[in-house]
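User: I'm putting together notes for a lab meeting next week and I want to include a structural view of one of the chains we've been expressing. I don't have a solved structure, so I'd like a prediction I can at least talk through. The sequence is below, exactly as it appears in our construct file.
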Amino acid sequence: MTFKDVRFHEAVDFRGTSFEDKVSFIGSVFGQQCIFEDAHFQEATYFSGDNPRIDRPARFLGQSNFKKTIFEKYVDFNNVEFQQSAEFSSQNRQESFDSRSIFKGHTIFGGARFKSIAHFEACEFQDVQFGVEFRGARFEKEAYFQGATFCGHATFLNTTFKEYTDFSNAKFSSETQGVGFAEANFGGYVTDFRNVLFNGTFAN
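Assistant: Thanks for the context. Below is the predicted structure for the 204-residue chain, given as structure tokens.
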């Protein structure tokens, strides 16, 4: 299934949709709010492609709602741009667990640009073999990862956090792989790592 290079000029609602086959949103532009809340991606999902000369990453010009979304397999948000809030969970602590997204496969947010608030509260990154990558991502407003669970390797290498950043109560729980924050830049007035669990062989 492909929505490659599709331009959604108005708001688009995929709420509760089940994508049973591989799906591509490479090059798509979401001009207004888009809702993927409670969607279920059962195969590989692409918002960006492997060839930067040919494949343009998706752009979210309005608010993006991915609350309660399940990604069963590989998902690629490499170099994707979020101009408004990116919601993979809720900032409300009472609602964050029930509204969290679950990433079961290898997950890539490398080079993604979050120009407004990014919500990953209580999200689960379950892939043990390849983990999750935020390498080179830019968070230009607040970034919330409190209570998130990282079951495999998590890399925030060369990631930029320009405002308030919250990893409190997050769990990096892999016993065989660690987490990397090497060359990350925290420029906000507070960076919160209270009660974080680092359970891997290393934390860089």
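A couple of points you could mention at the meeting. The mean pLDDT is 93. The longest strand covers residues 7-8.

User: Perfect, that's what I needed.
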